[in-house]
Specification:
Beta Polymerase, domain 2; four-stranded mixed sheet
Length: 146
């Protein structure tokens, strides 16, 4: 492996609790425009809400859009339409994507590069962080290695 180092994270209850706290604190410290309006919607209370792309990497410019991702158990199409209507007039523009938990895990398990792996590598998690780590743990148990 050359000079690379491999480590494995045990996603037990304590680790998930700590990671969840730290991730949410980091996300909230970034002051993402209009994220509070999304977080206030009761329709997304049980969903994982995160931002990826340039805002998660802190490389955004004045022309950047916000890549908002909702990972939901069900009703992805209905929630996608609701989110598109809600965010249509936001500035900066919000590019909203709703995916199911099953699809997210499927993306992580796919051998090819994809949006799920992009989310895994760079995200700000605003809600239901422990649920996000539960999905990661499920993917790991099924062969995902990051």
């Amino acid at each position: 492996m050359g000079k690379s180092k491999v480590c494995e994270l045990n996603l037990n209850f304590e680790a998930v609790s700590l990671l969840s706290f730290l991730d949410e604190q980091e996300a909230l410290s970034k002051k993402i425009p209009n994220i509070d309006k999304v977080l206030d919607l009761k329709e997304f209370i049980d969903d994982i809400i995160l931002v990826t792309g340039s805002y998660s990497k802190n490389t955004q410019t004045s022309k950047s859009d916000i890549d908002l991702v909702i990972i939901t158990k069900d009703d992805a199409f209905k929630k996608q339409k609701l989110l598109e209507n809600l965010t249509a007039l936001f500035h900066p523009r919000m590019h909203a994507i709703v995916i199911t938990q099953k699809d997210f895990i499927g993306m992580l398990l796919d051998k090819k590069a994809n949006f799920g792996k992009e989310i895994f590598n760079s995200k700000l998690i605003f809600r239901n962080t422990s649920r996000y780590y539960g999905l990661i743990k499920e993917a790991i148990n099924n062969g995902f290695r990051g």
